[in-house]
Every structure is written in C-alpha cells, then in structure tokens.
Amino acid sequence: MSLRRQFELPADDRQFLDNYGCPWEAISDGSQWVLLHDFCTQHSGYNHQQVIAAIRLESGYPIAPLDMVYFFPALVRKDGKRIVATEATQPIDGKTFQRWSRHRTSTNPWIVGQDDIGTHILLVEDWLSREFEK
Questions:
Q1: Which of 34, 18, 3 is nearest to 124 (CA)?
Q2: Cα(35)–Cα(71) distance, rounded to whole angstroms?
Q3: Does residue 67 sit in helix, strand or coil?
Q4: Contact 53, 34 (CB under 8 A)
Q5: Could you give the CA distance from residue 105 to residue 38 in angstroms, rounded to a whole number?
C-alpha cells in the first residue's frame, strides 16, 4: 500500500503516528483526514479487531480541537448491545465510515499546546474500551 501524504502535519503529530504502530495517511477529501490503518479496537467484543480509524482535522488545528472518530468498517458489539451515538455515517475516500459522536467535556477540555493527535488517539482508545464497562 502506498501511503498518501497530501498535506503536512505538525512534526510532533508525524512522530507520534510514525511510532504508534499503524500505517497512516494524511488525505484531503472535503476535509483533511488522518487515516490509521489496522487500528486495534481494544476489545474482543467488537465484530472487528482492526479497522481504519479516521480523524478529521478541523480548520485551525492544532489550536482548534479534534473531535469524534470515524471507523471503517462499522463496529457493532458481538453481544448485540447498541453502541450509542454511532448511527451517522461519513463518506471518506470512497468508503462509508461510521461516526462515533464522542466529545471532550469540561472536565477533559482540549488544551492548546498540550493536546494533539496523539492525545486524541489515546482518548479514542479509551472510548473503545469504556464501551464494555457499561
């Protein structure tokens, strides 16, 4: 697979992604997206153990916060329990991604100069794991 780099990321983001362990791409498709291939879903209770995780870089990033995550293929729980706020989809790079509507809170706000794509990916991992704590 030829990994596309259609735009430049901040050096700290590139370093985090290079060390994270998933092949990644930076593509422009209506918005700027970082695609993490072979992204681990953190729990055997999902229908897929690896997916493509997409993160949209908002205009103004890294000052503007990152929000949500998008998965392809869509994730469902093997036990049949509904995963809330995952009904919306987003076309990205010719595929239909499932949007996980998850957001930072006032107790965990985006902190400019501290938060970046790395802290957002760690938050995504937490969202995936916490789904099974319910």
A1: 34
A2: 9
A3: coil
A4: no
A5: 28
Q: What is the DSSP letter of 36?
A: E
The token pair that represents 28 in the structure block: 């422009």
Residue closest to 34 by CA, chosen among 70, 73, 87, 74? 70
User: How crowded is the C-beta side of 127, counted as CA atoms within 13 Å?
Assistant: 23
Q: 70: closest CA among 5, 129, 120?
A: 120
Cross-strand pairs, 46:
77
Torsion angle, CA of 55/56/59/61, rounded to 10 degrees? Answer: 0
CB 114 within 8 A of CB 123: no
Chain Cα centroid distance, residue 133 = 20
Q: Residue 91 is inside which H or E element, if any?
A: strand 89-92
Q: What is the pLDDT of residues 40-96, one digit of tens each?
A: 998 999 999 999 999 999 999 999 999 999 999 999 999 999 999 999 999 999 999
pLDDT tens for 11-54 read 999 999 999 999 999 999 999 999 999 999 989 999 999 999 99
